[in-house]
Amino acid sequence: MQSEPMAEVDEVALRGYVICTAPRSGSNWLGQLLSSTGVLGHPLEYFNAPGRRRISDPSFPGQPEDQVQRVLTSGRTANGVYCVKMFAVQFRKVARSIRLTRKLPELRFVTLTRRDTLGQAISWARALQTEQYRGTQAVRSAPVYNKRAIARQLTEILDEYRAWAGYFARTGPPAAELVYEDLIGDPQGDVDRIAALFGIAAKLRPEAIDLTIQRDALSEDWRRRFIQEMGDPDRL
Known about the structure:
By secondary structure, this protein is α/β, with parallel strands linked by helices. The chain has helices spanning 27-36, 49-55, 64-73, 88-95, 100-103, 117-130, 147-171, 180-185, 187-196, 217-230; strands at 15-21, 81-87, 107-113, 176-179. The protein is globular and about 60 Å long.
C-alpha cells in the first residue's frame, strides 16, 4: 500500500513499516532484533502514549499528529527507514483523527502472530498482574492463577488477530508475515525478509539484545490448569 507524498523530516528519503500484532506476541524481542541492525528503524508503540510515558518518556505527546513525528524521528535509523509497532486497538484509535497511510511515507505492513495463542494469553494475564512486560523490568506483584483473566485475554488476542485479518482481506496482503515460533528458530532469516522490502542488507548484533523468554514452569502450570478447567471438548 502506497502513501501520499509528504514533507520529509530531513533530506533522507523516508520509508518504513508498521508491525501489526497483538500483545505478548514476542514483538518487544522482534523490535530489539530489528533495532540492533541499525538500518531497520527503532520499533516501539509510538501510538501508546501512556505506555511510553510509563516506560521511558514522561513527556511523550498524546496527539497522533505529534506521535507521527516521533515515528519519523525517534523511530527511524540514519538511512531513513522507520518502524512502529501497533495493536489493532491502537490503529482504530489513531484512525479516528489521522490517515496513517498519508502521514507515513512509503508505508508497508508486516504482521507478527503467535501460534500458541493460549500461551500468549497466559503471558498477558500474568504481565497485567506483575506489571513485568519485559524480562528487564521488575515484578511489581506476585502472579496468581485466574482462569477468567486468561480467558478474557485469550478473547482479546483473538479479536486483535481477527481485526488485522479483516483489514488485510480488504486492503491486500501485508508485505511480510512473521510467526513468533518461526522467528525464534531463525531470527536472522526473518530480519532478512524485512530488509529485502527496502533492498538493503541487515545484520543482527546480539550484544544489543537483552530481552529473554519469560515463559517458565509457572506458565506451564497455568496452561495445564486452564485446559483442565476450561477445555471442555463439547463446547465451541
